């Protein structure tokens, strides 16, 4: 297989495009340049670091090291979910919702995949475990965050409607049934759309990467199918668990809507 | 018979057995209260007072939508002894600005509602029966208020709490609505608590009026032949 390796110069050239964009933004007064440069630099440093970590990880294969890395990834994803909510949930529970639903959407699905489908020896072989976990975390996070954001925002905005349903004697389950369905749909639409467009409109990133890396297309496609199915399932379970945790948290045992458990929105 | 008293003062004895009607004892919520009053079966207590004094909060506490201390009893049984949804089916609150969650009016009524009862109610409120097929988005404020009463009464609550109900209605429609509510409380022996800014309206519908003031709670000199003394 003939893989074109990238040199530092190659990367610098692609960085030049970003620089060009920043200059354009400066002259047109678009106010985007600084943020663009910072996030591009952040991305580069983060990925270089994780590249080195992965190299060390693949070499060592120590279970506790893998556990540590994956836990850090999980906590970061949980934090990211929380920070994307306009109306944040107060206290540690807000973080817990993020971590908990990301655990369901990614961690559990990854472990299942490793043990049942890939069956490597050892099953936690970091060459498979870490990339799959990373793909799942990155791709399910979007849906989970969208659904959680929609739910807390709707609770905030539709408080009167929800409470008037409660006033008619509905249980909190009944009072938010339409709203819950709406949040579920919001969370799942991105992955459903990307499955529908895969191969027709877009060539998914992982598959493209594998092909560029020298894999035969059919092998790359098989992995891509696996990953997309895992992402869809993971996102679904993650959205469900986020919704269940949030709604349970925002009602008390007397079926009262407890909006004081939310930070009123919009700091983002 | 309705009685009211300031917690710090001497409570007036209620003149109906506590086993019937709505009894409120030492009710506190937030910085409000303590409130102490009772409404006998089929009686109507008006509640008035300046905006922001906590009238709507009082109603919310009575249906247990806000945390509160003290007792709210219906027929001698406390609010907490019922599951919350069941309590709210017994003690119905008709909000000042009703919200609607389905596109059609009719879907907001329980599917097993008695057809004749529905007809009687909507006609009593000045609609024809086809109002059930109307789109909610086309209702006026006044129509929403009247239909919110229909929505509540068709569930046959034991107690009715009305928040500014009828405030958006012209005189004729307002009188019709008052009649519907008067009929309901007489036929079902239901205690009614009616929050209103309109003293003329309270004069028509209420047996007594509570004036919520900065000094908490007083019995208004305003109505009625049976107004309880301090």
UniProtKB/TrEMBL annotation, chain A:
TM annotation in the entry: 12-32, 39-58, 64-81, 93-116, 128-148, 191-213, 225-246
GO CC terms: plasma membrane
Keyword list, A-Z: Membrane, Transmembrane, Transmembrane helix
Pfam families xrefs: UPF0014
InterPro entries: UPF0014_fam
Major location (coarse): membrane
Origin: domain of life: Bacteria
Annotated compartments: Membrane
Lipid bilayer topology: Multi-pass membrane protein
Family: Belongs to the UPF0014 family.
Protein name per the record: Putative ABC transport system permease protein
Organism this protein belongs to: Desulfofustis glycolicus DSM 9705
Automatic annotation (TrEMBL), chain B:
Listed name of the protein: ABC transporter
InterPro entries referenced in this protein's UniProt entry, alphabetically: AAA+_ATPase (IPR003593), ABC_transporter-like_ATP-bd (IPR003439), P-loop_NTPase (IPR027417)
GO MF annotation terms: ATP binding; ATP hydrolysis activity
Alphabetized Pfam families for the sequence: ABC_tran
Keywords linked to the UniProt accession: ATP-binding, Nucleotide-binding
Domain of life (superkingdom): Bacteria
Domain (ABC transporter): residue spans on this chain: 17-227
PANTHER family in UniProt: ABC TRANSPORT PROTEIN ATP-BINDING COMPONENT-RELATED (PTHR43119), ABC TRANSPORTER DOMAIN-CONTAINING PROTEIN (PTHR43119:SF1)
SUPFAM superfamilies recorded: P-loop containing nucleoside triphosphate hydrolases
Organism of derivation: Desulfofustis glycolicus DSM 9705
């Amino acid at each position: 297989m003939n893989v074109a390796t990238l040199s530092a110069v190659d990367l610098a050239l692609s960085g030049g495009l970003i620089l060009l964009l920043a200059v354009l933004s400066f002259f047109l007064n678009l106010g985007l340049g600084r943020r663009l440069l910072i996030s591009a630099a952040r991305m580069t440093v983060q990925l270089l670091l994780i590249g080195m970590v992965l190299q060390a990880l693949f070499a060592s294969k120590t279970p506790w090291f893998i556990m540590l890395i994956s836990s850090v990834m999980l906590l970061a994803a949980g934090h990211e979910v929380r920070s994307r909510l306009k109306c944040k949930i107060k206290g540690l529970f807000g973080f817990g919702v993020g971590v908990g639903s990301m655990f369901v959407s990614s961690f559990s699905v990854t472990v299942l995949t490793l043990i049942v489908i890939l069956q490597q020896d050892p099953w936690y072989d970091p060459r498979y475990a870490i990339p799959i976990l990373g793909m799942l975390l990155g791709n399910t996070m979007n849906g989970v965050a969208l659904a959680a954001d929609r739910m807390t925002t709707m609770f905030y905005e539709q408080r009167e409607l929800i409470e008037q349903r409660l006033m008619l004697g509905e249980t909190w389950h009944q009072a938010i049934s339409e709203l819950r369905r709406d949040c579920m749909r919001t969370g799942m639409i991105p992955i459903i759309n990307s499955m529908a467009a895969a191969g027709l409109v877009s060539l998914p990133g992982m598959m493209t990467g594998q092909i560029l890396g020298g894999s035969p297309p059919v092998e790359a496609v098989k992995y891509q199918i696996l990953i997309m199915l895992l992402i869809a399932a993971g996102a679904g379970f993650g959205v469900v668990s986020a919704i269940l945790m949030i709604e349970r948290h925002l009602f008390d045992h007397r079926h009262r809507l407890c909006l004081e458990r939310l930070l009123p929105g919009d700091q983002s | 018979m309705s009685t009211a008293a300031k917690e710090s003062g001497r409570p007036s004895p209620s003149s109906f057995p506590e086993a019937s009607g709505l009894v409120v004892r030492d009710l506190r919520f937030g910085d409000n209260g303590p409130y102490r009053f009772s409404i006998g079966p089929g009686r109507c207590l008006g509640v008035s007072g300046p905006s922001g004094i906590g009238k709507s909060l009082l109603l919310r506490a009575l249906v247990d939508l806000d945390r509160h201390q003290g007792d709210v009893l219906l027929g001698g049984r406390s609010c907490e002894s019922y599951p919350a949804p069941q309590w709210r089916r017994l003690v119905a609150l008709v909000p000042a600005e009703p919200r609607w969650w389905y596109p059609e009016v009719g879907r907001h009524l329980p599917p097993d509602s008695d057809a004749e009862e529905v007809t009687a109610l909507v006609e009593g409120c000045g609609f024809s029966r086809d109002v059930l097929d109307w789109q909610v988005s086309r209702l006026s404020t006044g129509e929403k208020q009247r239909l919110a009463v229909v929505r509540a009464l068709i569930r046959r609550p034991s107690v009715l709490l009305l928040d500014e109900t009828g405030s958006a209605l012209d005189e004729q429609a307002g009188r019709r609505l008052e009649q519907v509510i008067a009929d309901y409380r007489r036929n079902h022996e239901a205690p009614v608590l009616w929050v209103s800014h309109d003293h003329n309206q309270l004069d028509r519908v209420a047996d007594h009026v509570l004036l919520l003031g900065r000094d908490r709670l007083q019995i208004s000199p305003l109505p009625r032949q049976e107004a309880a003394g301090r």
